Amino acid sequence: MPNYMQNSFNIIKGGICDMEYGSICSRKNEKIIQAAKLSDKKHRDRENLFFIEGAKLLQEAIIDNLQIVSIFFTQSALEKYSHIISQAKNAQLFELTNEVFEKLTCEEAPQGIFTIIKKPCEFHFDGNYLSEGGFLILEDVQNPMNIGAIFRCAYSLGIEKIILTKGCADVYNPKALRGAMGSIFKCKFEYCDSLHSFIEKQQSFGNRVICTTLSEQSLLLGDFEFNKTDIFIIGNEGNGISEKTISLCDSSIIIPMLSGAESLNAATACAVVLWEKNKNKLLDIHKKGETQNG
Predict the structure, then answer these.
(1) What's the pLDDT tens digit per position in 187-196?
(2) CA count, 13 A, side-chain hemisphere, 38
(3) Where does a domain end: 96, 118, 140?
(4) N or C: which end of the chain has fewer CB within 10 A?
(5) Rounded Cα gap, residues 286 and 293, in angstroms
(6) What is the number of domains present in the chain?
(7) Are 176 and 170 in contact (CB under 8 A)?
């Protein structure tokens, strides 16, 4: 008996349109085997695909016009989220048994939706994107959850251009995608071959590069006057920013904290600094009613 069955036509009640979908009831089905392999970076890179889980991220992917290849869902998810699933045009749709879905999910409490997406074309900053500055740089940030959290806070605080060194975790790691809550789809980012060359290029445009580090020359955050084009660097979770990179920076700042307090993690420090950098712009936007609270 085949382990994959394509239903002739199924009407999803509650959706915005009728949809055709197949049914998979075996964990040994080739589509399931290949989908499960996407948890490995090498397979994601080779196939140029990644996956997301849950209704919220699926909706964000649809809004941002990502190329959705296929959606796997349980019966309960179909009943609850058909209005979202039905919006994914040209995607292959498959209903799975709960047992089969367990082979795919990385979540402790999954919503029953597993979506495979084609990676967008790699973005390369050039022209005005480079000369206008305003980048956030991540140097060897290795925890994918930090990557996701940093993207989330960067986008929410007005930063949409991010440079990552090759030592950073994969942006398409499922933990990074979950932590970013769709912000990765909205930001432009590039993995940089030579961070130091990039810094020197930015400085040739007159853009300042700022880091956080403890030194006698560091200024207190709050006393430092940011420019729109300033570039901020976040360093490795354990080792911080490398000495070479620090030596290339134009200025360094420190976040004032209570004596004896532990240093902030990368994502939290990023949020504090970016709020200080962009607070006037964000307050103006909020006062004009161009954003929603929360």
Answers:
(1) 999 999 999 9
(2) 26
(3) 118
(4) C
(5) 8
(6) 2
(7) yes
Q: Which domain holds residue 270?
A: 128-287
Tokens of 252: 């360094």
> Of 37-41, 51-55, 118-122, where does mean pLDDT reach its minimum?
118-122
Reading phi first (left if > 0) and then psi (alpha if -120 to 50, else beta), residue 87 is in: alpha
Buried b / exposed e over 177-205, threshold 16 CB at 10 Å, is: bbbbbbbbbebebbebeebeebbeebbee
Whole-angstrom distance, CA of residue 166 vs CA of residue 141 = 10
- DSSP strands (E only) in the chain: 4-6, 22-24, 49-53, 68-74, 92-96, 113-118, 136-138, 161-165, 188-192, 209-212, 219-220, 231-234, 251-254
108 and 132 housed in the same domain: no
The amino acid sitting at 170 is: D
Percent of the chain having pLDDT more than 90?
83
Residue 294 lies inside a defined structural domain of this protein: no
Residues 113 and 135 in one domain: no
Length of the chain: 294
Do residue 279 and residue 164 come from a single domain? yes
pTM as predicted: 0.90
Query: How far, in Å, CA of 145 to CA of 169, rounded?
Result: 9
Q: Which two tokens mark 273?
A: 């600094």
The amino acid sitting at 85 is I
